[in-house]
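Task: complex structure prediction.
Instruction: return structure tokens for all chains below.
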Amino acid sequence: MSGRSLPNRRSYAAPGGRPASPAPGGRPDRPDRPTRPGLASSGHCALRARSARLAPLATMAALIVLVSWCGPAGASLSRASTGSAGKIEAVGAENQYADVISQVGGRYVSVQSVINNPNADPHSFEASTSVAEEVSRAQLVVQNGLGYDAFMGKIEASSPNAKRQVLVVQDLLKVPSSAFNPHLWYDPGTMPKVAQAVAVALAKLEPSRSAYFKANAKRFDDSLKPWLSAIARFKAHYRGIPVAVTEPVGDYLLQAMGVRVLTPKSLQLAVMNGTDPSPQDISTQDHLISSRQVRLVVYNAQVTNNLTGTFLANAKKAGVPVVAVYETMPTPGYDYQTWMVAEVRAIQKAVLNKVSTLRF
Amino acid sequence: MNWYHALLAPGLFANPSVQEAAVVGALVAAVCGPVGMFTVMRSQSFAGHALADIASTGGSGALLLGLSPLLGFVVFGVTASGTMEMVGTHRRQGRDLVTGIVLGASLGLSALFLYLTATSQTTTGAAVTILFGSIFAVTSSTVWFAVGVGGAALVLLGLLYRPLLVSSVNPELAAAQGIPVRLVGLAHMVALALAVALSALTIGAILSTALLIGPAAAALYLTRSPGRAMVMASGVSLVVTWIGVALAYDSYDWLPSHQGWPVSFFVVLLVLATYALARVAVWRRVGPRRRKAVPAGAGWRGER
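Output:
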């Protein structure tokens, strides 16, 4: 059970470019997209024929044609239907779920992740057609729910497949839709349930491997123990220490570690949703940090703006350590377990030695 | 608990974000008054809107490149203003068509830039910041940049006040007096672009002309003196911005979720109310029969 690197990972979120070529062990190369003859040139000529006055317009039109030409369209992508010989095809909407599928499915499963760019804000992710194709082919899909990856539901609805099993983590955990924090994977109780459900789903797809999947799920559970005991040790020593956050992403973990998040919920929501923050909340947060009422600032490295930059600068000025948290598993170099252990360790270092961790 | 806490939420005046917003609002109002008055006199409010849309392309592009949106607003706005004047907005025939199509294209480019920002960067809330403004999240370095931009616009208007006024009222007369009408028009367009950029900073690119045109139009309804109209327009801009900020601050307590409403909504609503009040005031003063003759702007708008 290596499970560290996913087969055939591609950065779907990379805009404007074609998807990277498949990694070793992936599927055969796609045929190049067919060219669209004459579209750009005919449009350009027709405009130019008019008059010089329209030159800026023609330039703009040409630019737009050019942009759409190399844009992430890819509707004409095609692909051999039997790529990964005999493997179960699965999709994890976020790469941390893909990682768990991969660890449980081992060599019998080929896993794709949809959201995996650590330099993008997943809340504003929009699926491309190639994602739709992955999902329509997949036999197992794991998605977060709570509106975090709402595009997955739309894609699934548009490509019905009676044999496809869809695991919604929100439903697995029975989290009400009114929950304010969608970042379920930071909750220590989440992934064991996901691994369990994935093992059951895979066993349904390939009953002969049932014992293998079950053993892998068990091994996954066991591998979480160092993380869980690190959380317990931290909680025993530092229960109730005050922290500030920029965004709710790490809140489930912080809650499990027994710390108190003093940042107003409304500010966390404003940053997460990208709306104009309230001045009351900004000054509350500024005060928490600059008067050192908090022991550390937990900073979402994937959802940033001017304001989170200001909070970071204030923390630096006040000597309050900062720890980065992520919306998706930072890669390469981490799997789910090592990522979570690294988060707890970074928080511990911040509280104990005032050391910041701004990048994993 | 002071008496005014019944009206204004506590802590309004002590809040650093509010103070900064008040300073930025005052600066924007000071620029928007004079520039807006000339824009209304010259019937160029559509050009202002065009500049705002094109500025949104610049702002979103700047954000994509990791620069200050204000820089993008200014660079794209000023470039576009020059181009629009060169291409010849004096030709009425077909002008609205070309402008309209270019506007659509530039908003389309903004859509692309905002999409790319959202999908390739950690930046959150790009669309809201560019299109609808985020006055409470303006950084102090941006404030100094804004002061520079506003100062440049005011100096430009100050230097050209007389020729600009004459050529706005009567272009033929201005030309006869030897005033370079086209050049003065170009300078006004540049000042307009700067004012649009500043206004976009407070209430967003899409709404920026509201702060520019509405107060000036209301002022020109009420007075015929250009000096008084400029001061009045600036005053109205200032008051609506400040009240907008105060209401946005107040709205934090309106709902239990403590998610305050956006400043731009309040500002635009107040601009509309002010304009309506100005029209009603004039209507009451001169009666419905003569109101067509009164709009001060029309009195000395240079018909071409």
